[in-house]
C-alpha cells in the first residue's frame, strides 16, 4: 500500500484530503532531504510493477488494481519519494450517480477525466526531479507525451532527468528485443547507445535535457535474463547519482504547486459583480492534528488524514473551470477556453499621406463600448486596456434549457493587457478607439514626426527654451529618450542637447 494519497480535485466540496498510511514514517510537515521521482505513463503499462521490481516493495498491481489520484511512496534508506499516479487515458465511468441539480453527461465525464489527467501531469512534472515514463510498444501517442514533458522543461528552463522505460512485456527472445528497440528508439531519434549495457540509448536535442531510453523484457525469459537485472540496476543508479537531494516540506510543496496550477485551470466569479469579473483565490492547509474526529471517521481503512487543502475564495465567489469540453459532430472530444481570451493583431501601416500609424485589432464580438476601459495615464509610454465579455445566455436560468446535441459554448470574463511603446519606436499620439460593426475593436496611434535640428532630450513638450532650466513641474513630465552615440543620462543631469 502506498504511503500517501492525494485525492482527485473536488471543486464542489473545495477540499482535497491528504491521506497517509497509519504506519508511514514520512513526516509531511517537516523539512527533509529527499529525491523526488515520478513514475508515469499511459493506463496499464506496468508503472506499479516497475516500482515493485526496483525497490523490492509489494504494491498491488495488475488489471484489477488501479492507482487513484497521486500516491507517494517513501523509501527511507534511499531518501527517495516516489510519485505514482493513475495511468493517462484510464477508462471513464458513464454510470456516475447524479447529485441534485448536477447531472453528469457523457461529454462532461470524458472532459473532466482529461482535465484531471492534465492537472496531475503538470503537478507531477513540477514536483519531480526525475521523470520515469513507462511504455510498452511506444506508440505515437506515448511519443507525444514524452515530447510534451521535454518541452515543459524547455519552456520553464529547468534541467530534469527524463527516462523512458520500454516495458516490452511480450518479448522473450533477445534478438527480437534488439530489433524492436532499434525500430522504436534508435532509428527514430538522434543520440548514442550506452556502453554500460544493451537496450540503453540517450536521445539528444539542441534544447532541453536528454531523454534516456531503457529496455526491459518478459521476466524470467531468455531476453529478460539477458537484460532486465542489468538495466534495472543501471536505472536505479541513474536515479541515485544524477541528482543531488533537495530539502523540502511535502505539504508546502503541494500547496505551492496547487496554488499555481489552479490559477491555470480554474477561474472564480462573484455573481453580484460584473459578469466575468475574476477574484483571486488561494490554497490553505490544515494539518490532520487540527481536524475534528468526524474527519477521521471518513478515512479509508488503515489510513489517517494527514491534512486538508482548502480552496479559499471571496464571499459569494464560485469556482469555474477555465476550459470546458464538448463532443463535436464527428464524435471528437474538443476543449474550448470558457474564459475570454480575444485574438490580438498589432502592426504599423503607412498612409498615402506618408503618416505612420500603429494599429491594434482585437476580436471581441458581443462586447459593448461601455465594457471597454482604456487608461493612457497609468503608464509613461503606452496604455492599459481592459475588456469585459458578458455571457449572452444565462445557463442557470429556469426558463433556459439546453437542446441535446447543442452544448453551450460561450466565453466570458475580464481580459486585461498592457500595450507598451518602446523608446526606440518613437513617440505616438494618444490612442483612438473604434468599435466596428464586425465586432473588431480598432485602436489607432499616429506616430509623431521628429523635427529636424534640435532634439530635446527628456522633455514631453517642445515649448521650453533649450537654455532655460526646467521647473519642477516640467521635470516631472519628462520621459527618457536615448540618442545614438551618447550615453543616456538621468533627467536631473540632462537638459537639452544639439544633434
From TrEMBL:
Region (Disordered): 459-499
Molecular function, one GO term: GTP binding
Residue intervals of the Guanylate-binding protein N-terminal domain: 18-74
Chain intervals with Polar residues compositional bias: 484-493
Xref: SUPFAM superfamilies: P-loop containing nucleoside triphosphate hydrolases
Domain of life: Eukaryota
InterPro entries: Guanylate-bd_N, P-loop_NTPase
Chain intervals with Low complexity compositional bias: 466-483
Protein name: Guanylate-binding protein N-terminal domain-containing protein
Source organism of the structure: Symbiodinium microadriaticum
